[in-house]
Every structure is written in structure tokens, then in C-alpha cells.
Design goal:
Elements (H helix, E strand, L loop, with lengths): L1 H34 L5 H17 L1 H10 L8 H8 L10 H11 L3 H4 E4 L5 E2 L3 E8 L2 E8 L3 H19 L5 H17 L6 H15 L9 E4 L3 E5 L4 E2 L3 H6 L4 H18 L3 E2 L7 E3 L5 E3 L5 E2 L3 H15 L3 H10 L9 H13 L11 H14 L6 H20 L5 H11 L2 H25 L2 H11 L3 H4 L1 H18 L4 H20 L1
Helix pairs in contact: 1-2, 1-7, 2-3, 2-4, 7-8, 11-16, 11-17, 12-13, 13-14, 14-15, 18-21, 21-22
């Protein structure tokens, strides 16, 4: 135990000497970037030094850097550019470690596998992958790094201590935001080292997108530390030359790739959140192959519809819709000064003047939000952070395949052709109807008082007929609200007519 404490102390001192210069420079760069609109390549250089430091500090920091690469509320735009290039590529473990983990989970390597290549085909921060023949099937064997959970626990303890140490050098908002990132990261990073969770992610995503002709490996074996999948070879998605040699239509591929991920985001209960070039290949027939399902996001229906509204506002350059959507998504504090935020959004949109809205790509769309996020009290929910990371990585790949690729064209395709906007509008109508029902229900509370008042005034008989007529029309309205789930179009027509009749009745 004493040795463990001593090792943590030694590592903590080493991390401090590595990170302190990075943090001091970051703090200064963040303030400078907020004061100037122009892109500063000196700040980007400092961001790249920070990235290199994270790589030197190992797997925990590489993964943390990937999370930070989608945090425009924390990092200056120049740092975002540097961190977006942070690749999860690390030399693999000594095979002796990998062999021991495999045999502890699967069995004797020589007996379980028909063949096994001891040279890893890829190495990542949390594990590595080997090729093998498993029960006669070409397989990819994914293995955790040696002692990875202990390394993560040690590093997370040190990171929290260093954050408390650096607290005095940052404003309270920044400290709280970084603390939230670290807490969320600490709670979820272990999911990526648990291959039972990844196996479940694979099965769920396969079920969701099976009708779209996307290739996903089969799970042959899964334990916490080892995952065996069918090996599926393909052309790296960014190898434009080789893809062209096979006659693959690159603009169509970019479109199909983007729409695949947008479908996962807006249609399904889970989406692949790490589409970097190493996780996507293309078959010689042009079919998309997806790998590595450790980092996934999950949006509930309510969040998904709010995201659709945000898309609508960004595309139409509507500051009020953007603001309302960000507040509903908990990405902007309701306490923020709406006038100032609105002005910030308008100024950000103005910076894009001269750009036709139909030609705005994802970076330009995010640029609108980026300037505002950096200036005002935002706190981004994890799933939206993963969404932003997914969108940014994907847009980079699509631009490589097709320099003329436009995100909004794909977005319009899926929103209009697959009926998502209709769903959004129907949901908004339903919300309106439900609010109307609540208002009517509250109105019923005053009916006894109204009736008594009418009787006291001894109004003529024909005037008293307004009350039962109003009650009847209200009942019809409520019935149509309930009926709208089965026959929405008919229901909304009757509801509109009902409102008109009620207005005319009350005016008589």
C-alpha cells in the first residue's frame, strides 16, 4: 500500500512539471483568444504543444484530450483545431502481457485459436487488436492494455488533485466546467475498457441500421477484457486514391457516410460517437464498414427533437430559435442575459455574411455556436459533446472524399425525405394542443363562478346558452387532442374549426 502511495506521489510530481507550463500558457491563450476575432496561429502552436504533452502522459490523457476536443466552451478555437487531430494511436503492449490476458479470459491461446498473429494490427490508448483464426473464422481479437484500470484510477486521482491545485489560477466558471468534465470522464471512461458493454453496443447498432446495408463485425466472444469479432478487411475511408481505383463514387460515398451517422443520431437510441478514419473502411463494392463501438452516445426522443429545432434555427439564421433550443438542451443557462446572447449570435451570424445558407457546412454551423458558447455561461451535456465530436470528425472525412461536400444538403435530404421535419412539426402541434388542454382545464375551474355570476345578473335565456355551448365545444376540443394520436390531420382540422365556432359563439 505504501509503495502504491509513493508511486502516485512520484507520478503526481512528474505530471505537475509536465502540465503546469501547459496550463499557464492555456490560461493566457484563452483570455487572448476571447479578446480577438482573428485566428492566431501562435495560439494553435501552443495547443499542439499541449496535445504532445497529453500523448506523452499516456492513455488517460489521450482519452481526456479527445473529450476536450469537442468543448468549445472550454478551449480556444485554436486549441480545438490542435486537439481535433489527437489520434488514439499508441504502440501496443508487449505481447506477453496481451497473451496472459487472452488466456485468462478465453483459454490456452494455442488450443483456442487455429492461428494467431502476435504482431498487433493496431494499437490504441486502452487496448490493441490482433488478427487470428478463431474456430475457422477470420477474427480480430481486441485486448485491454496491461493493468489499464489501475492506470486510469491512478491518473484520475492525480488529475483531480492537480485541478484543485490550479483552481486559484482560473475563474470559478472555468473551474466548475472542467470539474464537471473530469467527473463525467471519470464515471464513463471505464465503459471503454469493458468489452461486454462494447459487444452490447455492436448488437444494438447492428439492429438499428441493418436495413441500410452497412457492414458491422459479428461478436464471436466477449468478456470484460477481451473481445473477438469477425475480421472484415476494407479500404481506409480516407484513402482517396485506392477508392478511386475501385471506381467508387466519392461524392456519393461522402453523402452516404454522413447520412448514416445522422440517421443514427436522429433516428435511433444509440449512435457511434468516434468516426475517425481508423474506425471506418469501405469494401471494394463501396459498402461502409464500421469498427470500434466503445465510444457511443445516446439521445432520448425529447433531446433529439430539441436538436432538430436547433438545426432549424442554425440553417435559417434565426437567433431566437437558436437561443431557445440551446436553453432547452441545457447548453445555455436560462439566467444568461438574452439580449446579450442574442446580440452575440447575431454578430456570429454576421461574420458569415456572403455565405449562402445552402452552402454552410458543419464547421460554419458550429462556428455560429462556438463564439457564443465561449463567451456565455454554457454547460454542455455529455451526449451533446459526443454529438459535436462525431459531427466534426465526420465532416473532416466527408471533405476529404468530396471537397465540395455540404452538410446542409445531407441534412435537408434526411429531414425532408425521411419525414423528420413532419415529426418535429407534429410534435410541436401536439405540445401546443396539450398546453391548450391545460388552459381549458384551468378554465373549467371558473365555470361554477361564471354560472353563478350569470344567474345573479338574470341574463336572458338565449344568452345563457353560451355557457353550455362553450362547455360542449371545449369537450370536443379535448376529444380531438386525444384523437390526434390516431388521426392527426382530421383532428387538427376539427380543432381549428372548433376554435372558430367558439370565438363566434362568445362574440354573439
Amino acid at each position: 500500500m505504501n509503495d502504491d502511495v509513493k508511486n502516485i506521489k512520484v507520478t503526481e510530481i512528474r505530471y505537475l512539471f509536465k502540465l503546469l507550463p501547459v496550463f499557464i500558457k492555456f490560461s493566457s491563450d484563452r483570455k487572448r483568444s476571447r479578446r480577438q476575432e482573428e485566428y492566431d496561429y501562435r495560439i494553435e502552436k501552443h495547443g499542439r504543444i499541449a496535445v504532445n504533452t497529453f500523448i506523452q502522459l499516456g492513455p488517460t490523457f489521450i482519452k481526456l484530450g479527445q473529450v476536450l476536443s469537442a468543448r468549445p466552451d472550454l478551449l480556444p478555437k485554436e486549441y480545438l483545431k490542435a486537439f481535433s487531430d489527437l489520434q488514439d494511436k499508441v504502440p501496443p503492449d508487449n505481447f506477453a502481457y496481451a497473451r496472459r490476458i487472452i488466456e485468462e479470459n478465453v483459454g490456452n491461446l494455442d488450443k483456442v485459436f487455429d492461428e494467431f498473429n502476435e504482431n498487433a494490427i493496431s494499437g490504441a490508448s486502452l487496448g490493441q487488436v490482433y488478427r487470428a483464426k478463431y474456430r475457422g473464422i477470420d477474427a480480430a481479437v481486441k485486448v485491454n492494455r496491461h493493468d489499464i484500470d489501475r492506470v486510469l484510477r491512478r491518473d484520475l486521482i492525480i488529475i483531480k488533485k492537480l485541478l484543485d491545485l490550479f483552481k486559484r489560477f482560473m475563474d470559478n466558471f472555468l473551474y466548475i466546467s472542467i470539474s464537471n468534465v473530469i467527473s463525467d470522464f471519470s464515471a464513463r471512461i471505464y465503459d471503454e475498457t469493458n468489452y461486454l458493454i462494447e459487444a452490447d453496443n455492436i448488437r444494438r447498432i447492428r439492429t438499428n441500421i441493418k436495413k441500410y446495408d452497412i457492414i458491422i463485425p459479428d461478436v464471436l466472444f466477449a468478456s470484460k477484457q477481451v473481445l473477438i469479432l469477425t475480421y472484415i478487411e476494407g479500404i481506409k475511408v480516407t484513402d482517396v486514391k485506392k477508392l478511386s481505383e475501385y471506381g467508387i463514387d466519392l461524392p456519393k460515398l461522402a453523402h452516404d457516410l454522413d447520412i448514416t451517422f445522422i440517421r443514427m443520431l436522429l433516428r435511433n437510441d444509440i449512435f457511434h460517437a468516434d468516426p475517425h478514419p481508423g474506425n471506418i473502411s469501405i469494401s471494394t463494392e463501396g459498402r461502409i464498414i464500421l469498427y470500434d463501438f466503445g465510444m457511443v452516445g445516446k439521445l432520448d426522443d425529447d433531446t433529439r427533437f430539441k436538436l432538430l429545432k436547433l438545426y432549424d434555427g442554425l440553417i435559417n439564421k434565426d437567433p431566437d430559435t437558436i437561443m431557445d433550443s440551446l436553453i432547452q438542451l441545457n447548453a445555455l443557462s436560462p439566467a444568461a442575459n438574452r439580449g446579450i446572447v442574442r446580440k452575440g449570435i447575431e454578430l456570429s451570424i454576421a461574420n458569415l455574411s456572403g455565405t449562402n445558407v445552402n452552402e454552410m457546412d458543419i464547421r460554419e454551423l458550429l462556428a455560429i455556436a462556438n463564439n457564443v458558447i465561449f463567451e456565455f455561461p454554457f454547460h454542455l451535456p455529455r451526449e451533446l459533446v459526443l454529438y459535436m465530436r462525431m459531427s466534426s470528425l465526420l465532416e473532416g472525412i466527408c471533405k476529404t472524399l468530396d471537397p465540395n461536400f455540404k452538410f446542409v444538403i445531407v441534412l435537408r435530404d434526411i429531414l425532408y425525405n425521411e419525414g423528420m421535419l413532419q415529426e418535429l412539426y407534429m410534435k410541436e402541434l401536439n405540445e401546443f394542443a396539450q398546453k391548450a388542454v391545460i388552459s381549458i382545464e384551468k378554465g373549467f375551474d371558473v365555470l361554477p363562478l361564471l354560472k353563478r355570476r350569470l344567474e345573479e345578473q338574470e341574463m336572458p335565456v338565449q344568452e345563457n346558452r353560451k355557457l353550455p355551448a362553450t362547455v360542449f365545444l371545449s369537450a370536443v376540443f379535448i376529444a380531438m387532442v386525444l384523437f390526434s394520436r390516431i388521426h392527426p390531420v382530421v383532428s387538427y382540422i376539427i380543432m381549428a374549426a372548433d376554435i372558430i365556432v367558439m370565438v363566434l359563439t362568445l362574440r354573439k
